[in-house]
Amino acid sequence: MSTDVTILAAPKASNPSGGKKSSALIDNVWRAVVLVAVFLIWGFLSTISDLVSSPVASFLALADAFADGSIYRHLWSTLNAVAIGFLIAAVVGFPLGYCIGRSKFLGAVFDPIVAGAFATPRVIFFPILLQIFGVGVGAQAAMAALAAVFPIMVSTTAGVRAINPLLPKLARSLSLNRLQTVTKIYIPAMAPSLMVGIRIGFSIAFINVIIAEFFAARAGLGLLALRAYGQLDLPMMYGLITLLALIALIGNLALWAIEGHLRKTT
Q1: Which of 263, 255, 260 is nearest to 188 (CA)?
Q2: How far is residue 255's CA from residue 107's CA, in Å, rounded to a whole number?
Q3: pLDDT in tens, 141-200
Q4: Where are the annotated coiled coils located (predicted)?
């Protein structure tokens, strides 16, 4: 008597990394399609309206500004104000957000105050900043710091409150001191939320620096764009708008990449 035994082959394991790479490639292709569509629409609008400069003329005007060196002082002023203001907001916002998130008393007192201040347009404080710092990078950086500190505070507070309550107990069981608890337990656990606040804070800081340059500045890309508008130099104006959009895009993509890396490692 013979017995036939059929051995079923185990299904091949799928390759998740390959699927992720394919999905990322598709996403990048669609992003490129969107950008091409934007430039095509821009080019079409330039053919039907005298108020819209063509992409080619705008890029040539911007290239001329880089070639003769006239744009570098304004570019440095804008980037300097954004960097200083953003760093001040981070240095102030992280500790305050951490303290508010850790303390029920501070949370009860400051949560409604921070929410109300977050909803207040910071541009209304720019005349006060001009009186304090004068016209220049100082007032623009202060404007950026005042605008960016609130999203960083809010995201830090939310990140602290979302920490698993077992993690502080783990820190005590490992006999970690306060500094070690913050650096080894809290910051890794809060990292994704912190990066969201940093990304939003950078965007708001950049926007408010440009707004400040529209009102009062000795140099800056916003001031240069406003001058181009006043002189009806449409190619230069659209070129500067494109440059500002490119700077904001590069900054956000860099922070987005850091955020994605932190999400994978935490």
Answers
A1: 263
A2: 28
A3: 999 999 999 889 988 888 888 877 777 777 777 777 777 777 777 777 777 778 888 888
A4: none
Q: What are the angstrom distances between the C-alpha of 107 and each of 16, 158, 164?
A: 42, 11, 18
Q: How far apart are CA 137 and CA 158, in angstroms?
A: 32
Evaluate whether residue 221 is within a structural domain.
yes
Rounded CA-CA distance 246/33 in Å is 16
Residue span of the structural domain in which 43 resides: 24-53
What is the distance between the alpha carbons of residues 231 and 239, in angstroms, rounded to a whole number? 14
In this structure, is residue 70 part of a structural domain? yes
* Integer CA distances (angstroms), 95 to 65, 207, 230, 263, in order: 42, 24, 43, 22
Burial class (CB in 10 A: 0-12, 13-18, 19+), 242: middle
Rounded to the nearest 10 degrees, the angle between the axes of helix 187-215 and helix 72-102 is 140
Amino acid occupying residue 117: A
Encode pLDDT of 65-86 as tens digits. Answer: 999 988 999 999 999 999 999 9
